[in-house]
Design brief:
The chain has about 400 residues and is α+β, with helices and mostly antiparallel strands. Helices cover about 55% and strands about 15% of the residues. It is built from 12 helices and 10 strands.
Length: about 400
């Protein structure tokens, strides 16, 4: 019978026991720890070298942050793999070996789930980085949904994997979960409606993140779109959560999708304004609209449309091209300033509610009226505010730094 090599080359003191464990087994445990540390160091080094030499310098900081997310799950996975492969070689008692292997399998399963979680985070961050570089906002809405869906799938599969390693009957568990799921589905019909509403939002795309929307009595800017609800930041800076089933049952008014933003107002001129100046003022406002690059120039109306209680009412009906409300207000600001400059140039007064006392004129004393400008002068003033003129402002030119909120 051939001799066991361990009996020939192993010193007798290796068989001595310390705390019930042979010295050679302690040495084996130490060797496993050393192998685990070396394997972990090599694995981290390979990932670091990959990031440093393969990834471009512009994305290196991003990938260095993502790499650090993998440290803990990789550490746990390497430990479980080292124990599963190396511990049976140490010839421990079968009961001890079974317990250690069970613990290692459970921790290995948890490590795989954590590693999958970190991989999902890295994948979602990569998608988010690419989504931010595109003009459409629809992909920005999909990124958190993809992240949540993948994590739910990872938890479900990982949980079943861990239970399988604990020798739990997965088939009966899945069957029982199906019955429980049916009962939960019947009891959670509103939640299912919200999920269907979320699918409607993603398929019909009635709005995107950042749009100004009006949903029933709620109004604000869309911040986040989920499967169950949509979060809106109101103009009072509060945050409201709207169930997605409300999207399918009600009307969604997307104010942010407007190509043009209507501006309608009445300019009240004083009653003593001569007709010639009223006509010049109307044409001058039209010229201002034509000259402003942010205004719609194929459809607008500026007309003397009525006689008010104390004003000659000039209707201003036009459309502004702006991406958001702030830009719309800025264009209005420029337009209104130009209208004020036009009125000053034409010496046209804006009226306000007053009470006038008329005194009968006497032959000795007649009221004096300023002489009317000639038609040539009125025409020149109108042209100065037109596209080829230099009187209008066109764009915002603040007198100071502007004190904008940006």
């Amino acid at each position: 019978m051939p001799l066991d090599p361990r009996l020939v080359f192993t010193p007798d003191w290796f068989k001595n026991e310390f705390i019930g464990v042979a010295v050679e087994q302690w040495i084996g445990v130490g060797a496993l720890i050393a192998i685990f540390l070396v394997a972990t160091f090599v694995l981290r080094l390979l990932i670091t070298l990959y990031v440093r030499h393969i990834v471009s310098s512009t994305n290196r900081d991003f990938w260095n942050r993502e790499r650090k997310r993998l440290n803990r799950p990789l550490l746990l996975l390497a430990l479980a793999a080292t124990v599963l492969i190396g511990f049976p070689v140490l010839d421990f008692d079968s009961d001890i070996e079974s317990v250690v292997n069970l613990i290692a399998r459970v921790f290995g399963s948890i490590a795989v789930v954590l590693l999958l979680f970190r991989a999902i985070d890295i994948f979602a961050d990569t998608l988010r980085q690419r989504a931010e570089s595109t003009e459409t906002k629809f992909d920005d809405q999909l990124v958190p949904i993809v992240r949540t869906t993948l994590k739910i799938f990872a938890v479900t599969v990982g949980g079943l994997f861990v239970l399988a390693n604990l020798n739990v009957n997965i088939a009966s568990l899945v069957a029982g979960a199906g019955i429980i799921g049916l009962a939960v589905a019947l009891a959670a019909q509103d939640t299912i409606k919200n999920l269907l509403g979320g699918l409607t939002v993603f398929t019909d795309k009635p709005f995107e993140v950042g749009d100004w929307v009006v949903i029933g009595d709620d109004e604000g800017t869309v911040e986040e779109v989920g499967f169950r609800s949509t979060k809106i930041r109101t103009f009072y800076n509060s945050k409201i959560t709207i169930p997605n089933m409300k999207m399918t049952e009600g009307v969604v008014d997307n104010m942010g999708a407007r190509q043009w933003r209507r501006y309608k107002t009445t300019l009240g001129l004083a009653y003593h304004t001569p007709p010639e100046k009223v006509q010049a003022f109307v044409e001058g406002v039209r010229a201002i609209i034509r000259a402003n690059p942010s205004m719609r120039t194929d459809y607008y109306m500026v007309e003397l449309h009525g006689f008010g209680a104390s004003t000659l009412d000039v209707l201003l009906y036009c459309f502004i091209g702006a991406r958001d409300w702030n830009e719309e207000l800025r264009v209005r600001h420029v337009l209104n300033l130009d209208i004020l400059r036009l009125a000053e140039s034409l010496q046209v007064e804006f009226a306000f509610p007053t009470q006038t006392l008329h005194v009968v004129e006497t032959p000795e004393r007649k009221p004096s009226h300023p002489p009317l400008p000639s038609e040539v002068e009125l025409t020149r003033t109108i042209e100065d505010f037109g596209p080829e003129g230099s009187a209008g402002q066109r764009v915002d030119r603040p007198l100071t730094a502007g004190y904008d909120n940006g």
